[in-house]
Protein 1
Amino acid sequence: MSGRKRYKLIACEILFREVCFCVSQSKNIIDVDFMEKGLHDIGEKNMSEKLQAQIDKTDTTKYDAILLGYGLCNNGIRGLKAKLPVIVPRAHDCITLLMGSKEKYREYFDNNPGTYFKSTGWMERDTNPNDIDNSMTSQLGMNKSYHEFVELYGAENAKYIMETMGNWLENYKKFTYIDTHTGNFDDYKKLVKSDAEKRGWEFDEVSGDTNILLRLVNGEWDESDFLIIPPNCKITSTTNDDIVSYEKPSP
């Protein structure tokens, strides 16, 4: 197997179908660990700890590098480090990975404010933060029932809390389904369109692209779209278009 590399890919399960498709096409040997989507709901510190624990399980004698199937994801990958090189896409979140470029995502985002994105992964593996024990809503005590809030804060306050919690979608006005062409899922598109109609929202469909994920597993890491973090260096975030950087260990 001359010329083939072996990589450990740690990815969010939202990208399950896209990752599996790209791994099946890759010239390299890829072992994948999928992490539950709920990591996004438990806060930066807890998400980082979960991912670091998964990285620490990696057999450093078996792999040439660790690949992250994540964007910055609300700083959830910040602080991660490994004894192997780590490669991460320059992306704020998984929408970039589904659309195929940060530039395409940024253009769509700027021209379509209030958009809630959907894909096969979001249809199949989305979770309610209130159902996760250590989610941010749970940590803030916001996963209680109306009657529990009444007992704690009184009827008027309970009504206000429930109304406020129920309005988290009020800033959205559009569903956009990202078709990454990894199979025929017209039924999902119809469900999203139907949901948009029920809410009185707009519906749109965009053509996605798996090229970032495919280049990730193929080892084609150009500097504009990927960051290669040397061993023992921590991932950091930036305020510019680089999105991610790294910090060398103290001497």
Protein 2
Amino acid sequence: MSCVIVIPARMGATRFPGKPLCDLLGKPMVQWVVEAAQASGVAGRVVVATPDSEIVEACRAFGAEAVSTSPDHPTGTDRIAEVADQIVADVYVNVQGDEPLIRPSSIRACAAPILENPDIEMASVFGTCLDGDEENPAVVKVVTDQSGYALYFSRWPIPFARNARFEPVKKHIGLYAYRRGPLLDFARRAPTPLETAESLEQLRFMEHGVRIFMSPAEASELAVDTPEQAEEVRKLLAARHSA
């Protein structure tokens, strides 16, 4: 079964313009993500998808493959769907370009179920909410059924604790694996009501009947959304690589 890891990246982030190329211990941030994706071993091809020539040139300079995509995509999933139009594969794995601390084992945890089970159309991963995460709308929560499929994703702490919880609240980790058909269908469809209300792209899949299989995985310590977070990631990378 053919698999491609796609890393969406763009220079125009509102809070941190140019962040994919910010220097982290002598490497651009996107290079750390590419190297983690390659180390996961789940795909024969790792591709950076970007509308920016600067990112294409930087990727080629450190030996990575980059694909030019439209600057007009409203979501990262739409950008990956454009890559699926250009590169035919059975499965596409979405690894975010602002996750330089992502662990190869987490990418494997996301991809393994869909690569092993032909009945799974889409897969993702979850961890455990830490102190303060449950009430934080920036941390997406997920509830699952008894077979491991997502029932719902929300920025609200779900399930609501009317009674004592029997397990920790699950924190969604933003890795996805999709089969080609549902991915292309996503890009052809208009945003859906729940997706719009929560501002969560994965709900568009679910509102059209695509089930998302969830596996446990280790979340990265920090994604990069601001220059201050980039500085913190430098320290974490230095500590990780000196251990």
Protein 3
Amino acid sequence: MTLHERLQEVLRTFFNDDELVVTAETVPADVPGWDSLAQVNVVFAIEEAFGIELGDEALSRFASIGELERQITARLKSQGGQRDIAN
């Protein structure tokens, strides 16, 4: 499973929407229910799913799914590898 597929699954679970499809260009405003409170909880869900800590800056640093994926990839690499997730 690629990082994008795994992230999409996390978001589908979080938003309880099995049909949710995100692309690198998707922004939070494109996803129904993704408001500022959801942003905080989405970051926590991603941290738990990927076993990483994105930190407080992640709450405001990404404007798109593509940027979020780059942050996740960088954090995974800095913590010792991809953990069996392909790009």
